[in-house]
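> run fold Synaptic plasticity regulator PANTS
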Amino acid sequence: MAVAGSWQPPRPCEVYRAEWELCRSVGHVLHHYYVHGKRPDCRQWLRDLTNCREWEESRSAEAQRSLCESEQVRVQAAQKHTLVWALRQRPPTDWNLPLPQEKDK
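> ok
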């Protein structure tokens, strides 16, 4: 059981800073724009970084609550996507047979 004053942010503040900087990087912005058609929204990473620093400085309960909620939203967003491919339980029976040769044209 954790002691009341021993709570730590889910991630170190350096991780929030690195994620925020990555989100703002040119390569990430271009990739995100290419894939999604819009610029990435990096405000949540900045809010998390600010809350993490506030927690480290003043042990603010509001910052703690905000960080916990933000991480829960991230976990739920990652879990909502279904797998594209059906996972195999075992390889196909003919996996070791030679591949069919291309037909002559």
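The chain is about 55% helix and 0% strand.
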